[in-house]
Design a protein that fits this description.
about 30% strand; Glutamine Phosphoribosylpyrophosphate, subunit 1, domain 1; alpha+beta; disordered N terminus; five-stranded antiparallel sheet
Length: about 210
């Protein structure tokens, strides 16, 4: 269960006008590389996304529930659900199931009146963060982030920092690798970036 929860690297950064989420693509089952093109960032809406670490089925189901809940909320109220309320919804589900937990660690990022980033664990604990890294590669990734993070950094610099953080984890962590996916979200803005490890290394050397 510990390997299932932590065998990955996910990163979140909240900067002045954007939130940036990043993850590697490797899915593992113990020491076996089960899949090399896993998408660990799930788009929930045009202003919100979630990164997943843990059991794929649990993460996909939680993301589907959240997406449906946002759609229902919008239909009933005529408004968009805030990122904070969405994080609380996920935390409530996880907390209510804590005796038979969903094996996931989630980073929820989005933009309502400002960029927001939440870290939610499998017991339903929820914290708002400026930057965060989860998974087996997080000890390496967080060091890169802390060395380069500034809250007023540009989107380009934030994407570069997130990419370098995940890339550094793939060099040291056997459970992370095979590519890097990044999502940036701002006011009326949702952009995806995709890199092979070779492409990320070339950008690192440039």
């Amino acid at each position: 269960m510990e390997k299932g929860l932590h065998g990955t690297t996910t990163v979140g950064l909240r900067v002045r006008d954007y939130v940036v989420l990043a993850a590697d693509r490797r899915a593992t089952a113990g020491y076996y590389v089960a899949h090399k093109r896993t998408r660990k960032i799930i788009r929930i809406a045009d202003y919100m996304a979630v990164t997943t670490a843990g059991l794929v089925a649990d993460a996909q189901m939680l993301a589907e529930w959240l997406s449906s809940h946002l759609h229902y909320y919008s239909m009933v109220t005529g408004k968009r659900m805030s990122v904070s309320a969405a994080a609380q919804y996920l935390a409530a589900i996880l907390h209510s199931s804590r005796l038979y937990p969903y094996i996931v660690q989630l980073l929820l990022g989005g933009y309502d009146d400002r960029p927001r980033l939440y870290n939610i664990d499998w017991f339903g604990s929820m914290t708002e963060e400026r930057y965060v890294a989860t998974g087996s590669g997080s000890p390496t990734a967080i060091g890169v982030i802390e060395d380069g993070y500034r809250e007023d950094m540009s989107l380009e610099d934030a994407v570069s920092l997130a990419r370098r953080a995940v890339l550094s984890a793939t060099r040291r962590d056997a459970f992370s690798g095979n590519g890097i996916d990044i999502v940036a979200i701002g006011k009326g803005f949702y952009q995806e970036y995709h890199y092979t490890i070779e492409e990320a290394l070339k950008l690192e050397r440039a």
